[in-house]
Design a protein that fits this description.
By secondary structure, the chain is an alpha/beta fold. The protein has helices at about 10-30, 45-50, 50-60, 65-75, 95-105, 120-135, 150-165, 165-170, 185-195, 220-225, 250-260, 295-300, 315-320, 350-385, 410-420, 445-460, and strands at about 85, 140-145, 175-180, 200-205, 230-240, 265, 290-295, 310, 390, 400-405, 425-430, 435-440. Helix content is about 45%, strand content about 15%. Strands 2-8-7-6-5-3-4 form a seven-stranded mixed β-sheet, sandwiched between helices. Bound molecules: pyridoxal-5'-phosphate. Pyridoxal-5'-phosphate binds near residues 185, 238 and 267. One of its GO terms (cellular component) is cytoplasm.
Amino acid sequence: MTANHSWDIDDFVRAGEATVRRLARYVGESQRGETPVIRRTPPRELAERLGLARWIRDGGMTAESYETFLDTYLAEGTRLHHPASVGHQTAAPDFPAALADFVHGASNGTMAVYEMGASAATVELEVLRWMLGKVGFPEGGGVLTHGGSLANLTALLAARASVAPDAWTDGVPGDLALLAPPSAHYSITRAAAILGLGERAVVPLDVDDLGRIDVARLPGALERTRRAGRRPMALVAAAGATATGLYDDLRGVGEFCAGHGLWFHVDGAHGASALLSDGHRHLLDGVELADSIIWDAHKMLRTSSLAAAVLVRREADLDAAFRQRASYLFYGDQEFDLIGRTVECAKAELGLKIFLNLAWRGERGLGEHVAGRYATAHRFWELARERPGFHCPYEPESNIVCFRYGTGDQAAVRERMLAEGSFHLTSVELGGVRHLRVTVMSPATDDKTLEALLDRVPALSPPL
Ligand SMILES: *Cc1c(COP(=O)(O)O)cnc(C)c1O
C-alpha cells in the first residue's frame, strides 16, 4: 500500500483556520503592545522548546500540535506590529499582503515565464505599470525582484550594459567606475564587486556632514574619475539614505548626470514610497531624470519581505541587461515573460502582495500610511529636542530619526532595551559617532510610545 501524498483537504482547512486564529491573536496583542517587542532566547534553548529535532526526526505534526508549535514560534519572534518596534526598515505587513503570501504558498504560480502563471505575471506587469507611472517613466520598463539588494545589482547591470555592451560576452573592461556617496547602502559596493568592477572602482562622492551628495562638488568627482583614466558607469543617489532617511537632491544630481551623459541610478529602496504622499512627493523632485530606480515594497508599502522593483526610464535598457539564452526557457517571441530581466529564474508571486495592498487600501491609503509614519518620526524629533540630554543631528525628512543621549555608550543603551524587551531600536555611525536610530514602521507607534521611549533612554543611561 502506498501513502496518498495528495492534500488531505479537511486537514488543510483545520490547519489553515488554526493559522488565522493564532496570527490574529499574535498581531492583536502585538499592536496593543501587550507583550515584549523582542525576545532573544538562545538558539539551542529555543530549538529545544520548539521540539525541532524531534519534529525533524519523527514528523507526525497534526493541526493540533501545529497550533501549539505556532504559538511558541510566534511568541519567540520579533513583533513588527508592536508600537515599540522602531528598529529596522522592515514593514509591519498589512494583511492583504499576508493573504498573497498564503495564496502563493499554496498555488505556487512561480514567475519565470508567463505559462507558469498567467494571473501572477499579469498582476506583476500591471503593478510595474503603476509604479512606472508614479516615478514618471512613461516609456519605461521594470521587473520585480526578491529585495532591494538584488534590485540594485540588476539596475547597475543595466547601466553596465549601456556603457560596456560587450561586457556580458567578453568580460568587464578594467576602466569602469561607479560614483556613489560613502553613505550608500552596502549593496551598491557589493554590486560593483559582483559586476566585476571591483570595490576599488567605487569613487566616493563628496558629501555634507550628514552624508548627502554635495551637488556643487560633482564636477570635481567626475574630473578625478576621468583623470584616473576611468569611465563612469553610473552615479548613485539615495532617495532615503539607509542611515539617516535623508534624501539627496535628485534634481541637482539628475541635471548634472544628464549634462555629462552619466547613467543616473536612484536607490529609492526605502524612500520611493513617498511618491504616494501629497505632502512628501516633493522629496523625490527630479526622480524622472533617473535612468534607473529601485523601490522596495517590503519597507513602506507594507508587504512581507521581499518585494522590490527595478524600474528603468527606457524599457530596452533592462532587456539589454541580460543577454543569456537557455533553449528550454527562451524561445521565439516572449513578449510577456520577465525572465530575461532578472537574476532569478523562478520567483515568487511578488506582484500579488503589492497588488492586494493597493486593492484593499488604495493608493491613497498607502500614501497616508507613509505620511503617517513620516509624521510620527517628525514628532519624535520634536519631543526629543525639548528634553535635556537628547541631541538630534538633523530634522528628519522621513520615518528615520537619529539621536544621542548624553555622551555615554549609545550601543549599550540599545543592548539594555533589547535585553528587557522594551524597545527595538537600532544604531548607526554618523560622522564617526554612534547614534541611536528610530525607524517608525508600525501604525501602532504613537505619542505615548515616543514619550515612553524618551523616558526609558535616560533611565538606562549613565547620569548626564
Ligand atoms: C533597505 C535598503 C536596501 C536593501 O534592500 P533589501 O530589500 O533589504 O535588499 C538598499 N538600499 C537602501 C537605501 C535601503 O534602505
